[in-house]
Amino acid sequence: MVRFSRVLLKDAGLAIDKTLSEILVCPLSKQPLRFCEKTKSLVSDTIGVSFPINDGIPCLVPKDGKILEEESNASKD
Q1: What one-character-per-residue DSSP string does 14-28 give?
Q2: H-helix or E-strand containing 2?
Q3: What is the pLDDT of residues 16-58, one digit of tens each?
Q4: Using CA atoms, how far apart are residues 55 and 16, in angstroms rounded to an integer?
Q5: 25-28: which pairs have CB atoms within 8 A and are 24 or more residues apart?
Q6: Distance of CA 32 to the CA centre of its chain
Q7: Is beta strand 41-44 parallel, antiparallel or unpaired with respect to 34-36?
Q8: What structural domains and CATH numbers belong to the chain?
Q9: pLDDT above 60: residue 4
Q10: Would you indicate the residue range of the signal peptide (predicted)?
Q11: Are 49 and 66 in contact (CB under 8 A)?
Q12: Which stretch of 3-7, 32-36, 37-41, 59-63 has the lowest confidence by average pLDDT?
């Protein structure tokens, strides 16, 4: 299983294989995650939380998630 996971993750967290990204879901909302090139993390657009990727391993523990700032609030400042 570990070997298979390493094959699916490439470039140590810089990109995630499409197959793996289709399987992974948010641990809180159970909705699909998308890979964000800018932050190199997995994002749940449903609840606005970003999960880090450390050494090519997605950290999907709820306490590791970071709440994303709304773009509308950031543009007002």
Answers
A1: TEE-HHHHHH-B-TT
A2: helix 2-8
A3: 666 777 789 999 999 999 989 898 899 999 999 999 999 888 9
A4: 12
A5: 26/51, 26/60, 27/60, 27/61, 27/62, 27/65, 28/62, 28/65
A6: 10
A7: antiparallel
A8: 14-67 (2.20.25.10)
A9: no
A10: none
A11: yes
A12: 3-7
**pTM for the full model?**
0.69
Locate tokens 């990204």: which residue? 21
Gap between the Cα atoms of 25 and 72, Å rounded: 26
Output phi, psi for 60, to 5 deg. -100, 25
Q: Distance between CA 77 and CA 68 in Å, rounded?
A: 16
Spatial distance between the Cα atoms of 28 and 59, rounded to a whole number of angstroms: 13
Measured CA to CA, the distance from residue 26 to residue 33 in angstroms comes to 6
Instruction: Look at residues 59, 53, 62, 48 and name the one whose alpha carbon lies nearest to residue 15.
Output: 53
